[in-house]
Amino acid sequence: MEVEWASAPNSLPSWKKADGKLSITCYTAGDALMLIGRGLTQSDKTSETLEPRFTEMAAMLDVSRNAVYTLATLKTFLCQLAMMGYTACYLYMEDTYELPGYPYFGYRRGRYSVEEQKEIDRFAQSVGIELVPCIQTLAHLRTAIRWSYMQPMRDTVDNLKVGHPETEALVEAMIAHFSKTFQSRRIHLGMDEAVSLGTGRYLRENGYRDHREILMNHLHTVCRLCEKYGLQPMIWDDMLFRDRTPLMDYYGNSDPVSEQDAACYPPGLTFVYWDYYHDTQEEYEAQIRRRGCLKTAFAGGVWKWGGWVPNLTKSFQDSQAAAEACYSLGVQHILVTLWGDDGEETPLATVLPGMALYGLLRYGSAAPGQTDAYCRLFSDAPLAAYTLMEKLNTIPGIPQENLEALIPHKLLLYGDMASELFQPSLTSAPATLAAYYEALAPQFAAFAQNTRCESLQRILKMYQCLSQVLSIRCNASAALHDAVTQQSQQQSLAAATDLLIEMKAQVEALHELTVEVWSQERKGQGMEILDLRLGGVAARCRALCKRIELFTEGRIDALSELEESFLPYQGILSLDGHTPGREAYGEIVTANTLCHQFSV
Question: Taking every annotated instance into account, which residue ranges of this chain make up the domain Glycoside hydrolase family 20 catalytic (predicted)?
Fold first, then answer.
């Protein structure tokens, strides 16, 4: 390979191939890695001169939902980002960073030490990636607020108490800290979804005040601190735009922000519009126009949250629509969020196709063949190996594009087989659904066998095992409930027991693979949540076997959990009065009380 370094920062990067040799011309190390990636993946071209459509293309890694990635994982990911054309990476850290003077901040959460923060920042700079701290200075601080030292700063279980001297001292400590540990002069302050602001201890101590007034006071305070430490602030903008609609609808309709409206906000503040839900360019354009004259960035996402597998089809459709809307309306800064809501069950490596798509969109269009080429470059596996993962959700009766982001695999995995909430609403033919999942298992096995990437092999084997668990589960639940209605009750219960024993063994095998997959990407803290979830499934298999034994021996009179008639699932997230939506673990695992939580 031959590298020619350009003399001017505004020079357009380019590459060409001739006689098997790659030659690149660029100004920065980041562009050099991007050109190498392009040269290795654009098989239908022999040269390119590239002009980016967006100034910034950034990933946003969530390290606050139990999973904190190891430095080795971060370094690999940053190299891949650079080769795909990214310019920045935001680390979303609610309390998963060491904050000097606050020893309980992030305690037992796998937080990054000060030295780890500096090391990953130095590495990011070396590959041309700006590492930007993305923190929380108002809400989403539940795990930090649990400690006694935080109580003077606590409004509700999630929100800081605005206006308290200790709150301001904490926020100043955060901002001062990142002004020293990261080289970036930008900081994302969070401040999203603070919907209970001013309703807890703040209300008791200060009386009622409009939450908009509280929010604006805090925003000005925090931005003054950023100015003090030489940092350029940005925030998620939902709390500001919810207030511009009658029903607090973030994605509602309102007039564009005028110069007069904008004057009440701190100068130099960037407003990040986040949206991973809409499916058309027109919808995104309408929302961007609402921002009017504000300095706006856009945050889309690759759907890796809420379940065990990514939703790539929805990610592809929504991302392309959003990127074209941003390009047409001049939004130059794009963040690609990788949230880990509800336990961070999806491995980071599975989002590669979605990340490749955004990297391609920075320079133009993105064809499936180009995305496939990046998958093969980084994992020795085709795009099809990744899109197969989605089939754990696109069961018979659910559209293949799954734009509603339904997660039936998670409902079935954790939903109780005896006190059944979900299976009858997902299928009227459990044997057919069981056969569907059984047929997926060898497909995962085939892709695992054909890749030399050991980390992806483990992930595919985990999904193979998950498919087998779900297949057995469908049959076991059906057998349990058939026993109530069939005359040959003892025979049906015996069949159910055999299936439960088989399922327990398969869940334990799934757990072992899950520990391997978790450990290859993440620190150990947080894995206990998946241990408890999968351990709970295995424990229910054992408990149901014991309940059946007690019943058949006449030691209890009934299996009451099997006698209750099914009702269509009508949770608050159900789509049409019966189809379950994106329920979280706490709503999936039981209809009973999982734990008590207090709001103030």
Answer: 109-244
